[in-house]
Design the sequence.
């Protein structure tokens, strides 16, 4: 027997199936999709069996060394899915498979993850001749009365007695595999009578058979999660399974418990904060068919269910649903592919859908479903805009008097405050401290990025450059300066203004430890703090009933990111964070400080008007040939040698311009993050509606550079940002 094995090394040069002979004694164990250990050059590597060839050949072949699995790791669907990802993203096949699996299941000679075993005790022989002392007697009674007794539990009575009884063979022990996270039920099943709007949404999904994708556009607090659960219940009853994706940040125990209360146990939770052992165990529950719902972040989209009824992607606009590293897949694309395979439903939900997805819904590629009102017709919070151009003269340390007043009166009522410091993006742009003006590229309508070394402003799309001017071309004040306000500074100011208030900060620095994020949320929920100050982390999915004021300290930072999605990101962020105010019975208020009060992203966020925003943004995208009117592919040329990177980038740019006749090719220009780890990056943007030559040309490009040690090529289809 000969098998084709794909080994663990992700390298374009060896990303293919290598043939091995199977020793007679291993033949029985061979299946497609399991892992084997094989000799490879001077190494021993782990790989997946992708092919079995039963014919005998006389070829000189090495033999596989051992078989690592009994159960199939890559089933038929996943095998095909990996090949599709390879084709779509031009990644290596092995990287596609590895991305689907938790560490304990990846092909890897290192990183072995062990199963966890517990030791249990049972009665062996009760010999009446053996005299027992009191504690031994107690232990025996304990064991007699229970079905299953952990040794560690008995040790608490008396470890020496347990050991003696084991030695005398009155007791015996056995090992049993256990999961690191117990799949236990939560008390109190809560199930609402659905509102008419919710019922309508549910029945539109159930009405049709087979694969379709739905976009559920529902304002914050409109009852989307209840709709998801109702749909899941329907498919579980048919013996099918469900995947629920939520952003990493909202994957809290509260969120998961809401599902457990509804469905009892049988839920696996997959997210990056779990230990490798925990992930391995959760994944195994799915493989063994012990759970029928998987809730998780991006990679949970690969949960190996065999009979999916529905895939739900909540907060579908979340940028982390696209993986930034190879394979650069988007979970929504994978969901649609799996939906097709399982002939099941895919539901994307958001209050602020990705522009591409809402456009697809408008064109009936997706079915549009709407929940336009909050539950119980509760009003969305009133949003007030503070024009910082006016307010800045009287403001203190970034706080307008309006915001300070609002915080004071909220605290006086004993209610809570959420403050967003919009730090998304880079501090590397220049803006006018007096009027908030930010210089943009005349060709691309993108903020120019400040380059300190050359003291110039540059466009990262087309390469346009200009000298830095101290005088603002807009208000003529000599006030152009580099921006950037840290969370610590704001925290200090809060302590100064509101001496008695308890402030807790949530940002990248305070949440790096495992569980820290959750601790902060719980402490704030339990009212141990009055003010929660944070970055975009606090914008999503959180439900605090006593928050009646949301303040946005600087709405503009994300507007000024040099990216065609900056308005969309700003609108999403403001609308999401505003939705955190007044969720329960008390009325909510939102205050947004901005230098750009007339910017449409801010004006529409004030009115909670997604559709208004969508229309305006679509017009701009059309004028400037951005998605969803054009597709974008971003090609990066990376090298430690600046001159080489620049030369190769120019060469590649010329080739692309020549070969991609139906595309607009921009650049090369330096990347946004130009120097990383002393490697230099140049980027080329390809815009197209339909480009027959695209894949062929890019594959040839990768092929050409695959053995080049000095220059690396990186390709990103539909990038999140440029
Ligand atoms: P979303 O996911 O759209 O933000 P949720 O599903 O979390 O909305 O619902 C918002 C709040 O309304 C939650 O507290 C939820 O328990 C409650 N809720 C949802 N549906 C109903 C209903 N049909 N009747 C009463 N309360 C509901
Ligand atoms: Zn430009």
Sequence:
């Amino acid at each position: 027997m000969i098998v084709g094995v794909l080994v663990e090394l992700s390298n374009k040069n060896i990303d293919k199936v290598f043939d091995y002979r199977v020793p007679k004694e291993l033949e029985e164990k061979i299946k497609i999709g399991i892992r084997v250990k094989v000799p490879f050059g001077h190494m021993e590597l782990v790989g997946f069996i992708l092919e079995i060839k039963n014919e005998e050949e006389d070829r000189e072949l090495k033999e596989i060394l051992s078989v690592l699995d009994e159960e199939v790791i890559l089933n038929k669907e996943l095998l095909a899915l990996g090949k599709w990802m390879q084709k779509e993203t031009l990644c290596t096949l092995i990287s596609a498979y590895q991305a689907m699996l938790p560490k304990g299941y990846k092909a890897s000679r290192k990183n072995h993850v062990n199963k966890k075993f517990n030791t249990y005790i049972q009665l062996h022989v009760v010999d009446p001749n053996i005299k027992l002392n009191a504690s031994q007697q107690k232990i025996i009674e304990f064991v007699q009365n229970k079905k299953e007794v952990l040794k560690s539990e008995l040790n608490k009575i008396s470890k020496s007695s347990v050991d003696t009884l084991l030695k005398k063979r009155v007791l015996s022990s056995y090992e049993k595999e256990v999961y690191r996270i117990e799949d236990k039920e939560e008390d109190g099943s809560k199930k609402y009578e659905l509102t008419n709007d919710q019922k309508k949404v549910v029945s539109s999904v159930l009405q049709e058979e087979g694969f379709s994708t739905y976009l559920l556009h529902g304002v914050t607090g409109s009852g989307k999660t209840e709709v998801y659960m109702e749909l899941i219940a329907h498919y579980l009853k048919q013996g099918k399974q469900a995947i629920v994706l939520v952003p990493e940040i909202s994957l809290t125990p509260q969120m998961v418990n809401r599902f457990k209360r509804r469905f009892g146990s049988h839920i696996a939770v997959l997210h990056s904060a779990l230990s490798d052992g925990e992930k391995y165990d959760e994944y195994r529950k799915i493989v063994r068919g012990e759970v029928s719902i998987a809730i998780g972040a991006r990679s949970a989209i690969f949960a190996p269910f065999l009979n999916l009824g529905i895939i739900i992607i909540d907060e579908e606009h979340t940028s982390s649903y696209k993986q930034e590293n190879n394979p650069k897949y988007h979970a929504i694309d994978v969901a649609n592919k799996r939906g097709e395979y399982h002939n099941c439903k895919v539901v994307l939900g958001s209050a602020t859908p990705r522009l591409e997805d809402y456009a697809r819904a408008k064109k009936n590629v997706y079915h549009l479903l709407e929940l336009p009102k909050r539950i119980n017709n509760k009003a969305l919070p009133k949003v007030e805009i503070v024009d910082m151009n006016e307010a800045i003269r009287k403001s203190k340390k970034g706080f307008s008097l309006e915001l300070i007043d609002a915080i004071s009166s909220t605290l006086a009522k004993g209610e809570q405050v959420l403050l967003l410091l919009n730090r998304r993006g880079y501090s590397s742009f220049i803006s006018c401290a007096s009027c908030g003006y930010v210089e943009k590229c005349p060709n691309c309508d993108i903020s120019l990025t400040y380059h300190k070394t050359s003291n110039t402003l540059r466009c990262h799309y087309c390469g346009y450059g200009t000298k830095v001017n101290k005088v603002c071309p807009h208000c003529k004040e000599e006030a152009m300066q580099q921006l950037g306000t840290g969370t610590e500074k704001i925290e200090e100011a809060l302590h100064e203004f509101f001496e008695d208030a308890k402030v807790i900060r949530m940002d990248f620095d305070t949440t790096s430890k495992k569980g820290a994020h959750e601790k902060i949320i719980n402490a704030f929920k339990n009212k141990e703090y009055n003010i929660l100050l944070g970055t975009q982390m606090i914008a999503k999915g959180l439900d605090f009933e006593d928050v009646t004021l949301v303040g946005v300290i600087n709405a503009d930072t994300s507007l000024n990111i040099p990216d065609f999605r900056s308005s969309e990101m700003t609108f999403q962020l403001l609308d999401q964070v505003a939705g955190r105010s007044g969720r329960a019975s008390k009325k909510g208020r939102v205050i947004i400080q901005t230098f750009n009060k007339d910017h449409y992203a801010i004006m529409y966020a004030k009115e909670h008007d997604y559709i208004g925003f969508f229309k305006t943004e679509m017009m701009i995208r059309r004028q400037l040939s951005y998605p969803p009117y054009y597709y974008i592919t971003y090609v990066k040329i990376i090298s430690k040698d600046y001159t080489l990177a620049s030369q190769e980038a120019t060469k590649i740019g010329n080739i692309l311009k020549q070969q991609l006749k139906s595309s607009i090719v921009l650049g090369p220009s330096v990347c946004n993050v130009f120097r990383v780890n002393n490697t230099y990056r140049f980027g080329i943007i390809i815009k197209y509606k339909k480009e027959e030559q695209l894949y062929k040309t890019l594959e040839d490009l990768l092929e050409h550079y695959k053995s080049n040690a000095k220059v690396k090529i990186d390709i990103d289809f539909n990038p999140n940002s440029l």
Notes: The first strand starts at residue 2 and ends at 7. The domain at 631-717 is CATH 3.30.70.600 (Alpha-Beta Plaits). Residues 192, 194-195, 198, 218, 220-226, 375 surround adenosine-5'-diphosphate (ligand 1) (CB under 6 Å). Residues 371 and 513 are 37 Å apart (CA to CA).
